[in-house]
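re the bet — no i am not wrong, look at it urself. input seq straight from the record:
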Amino acid sequence: MSNEKTFCVITGGSRGIGFEIAKQMVENYLTPGSKILLVAKNQQRLNEAASKLKNVRRSSGGAGVDISVDVCNVDLGECRFTELEKKIQESIDHTFHRGIIVHSAGTLGNVEKPITEIFHRKDIDQYFNINFVSFVLVNNLFLKLTKNIVRQQLIINITSLAAIQSIAGFGLYSPAKAARESFLRSVLVDQPDIKILNYSPGMVDTDMVSELCRQTWNEETKNFSTGKVRNRYKATPTLGREISAPPLMLEHIG
């Protein structure tokens, strides 16, 4: 990798896949002077995640302390991003070569009943505000604020096979993931210079998967926790200027 600095925003960066990506970036990808901004709604978890990242050792030697880590407490369901805008503006300058946003934040919603038993608009509005509307608004805010500062913009969307293959018991999760991928295909058409990666890591043992296995109404989906049906659902590439192959290999697109 080059020595060019990167500014990276990671939503859902306080735990799970988002935090693991942040950790891998510090270990393997980001050069000294780069900066990570973790975005999530739990301030305590954000602080703990930032502290852990500062102690991560880079694979090339040296501690991650030469990578600056900041946090921003945002409730995506409220769709208000004044504080995030301020944080980005304070964090970035023309010394950064690359700007990356990683969209890892997301929720399951109500998986205790089939999707045909959702009757209240507020349940749908709340879910899509968090998982699609905020995704679009945060994405576009990042692109606007970094457009004339960095030389390269990269969007990484943590997606799922559920975006193209509906899975029983996932409720609104599948249509929201599909909407995100469709939106990014439109971004690619409108702004072909922006690099986009829809990354599907496959089934990962996170708090969200544990929640799904506990709460879903679908008995087969409950078996995800035992691994009996995991092999039925493989991570697959999606369309556009994208690659999909774990682990996250940023050197292929950087």
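see?? The chain has one domain: 5-252. told u. also The helical segments are 16-28, 43-54, 82-91, 121-146, 173-190, 207-215, 219-222. so pay up
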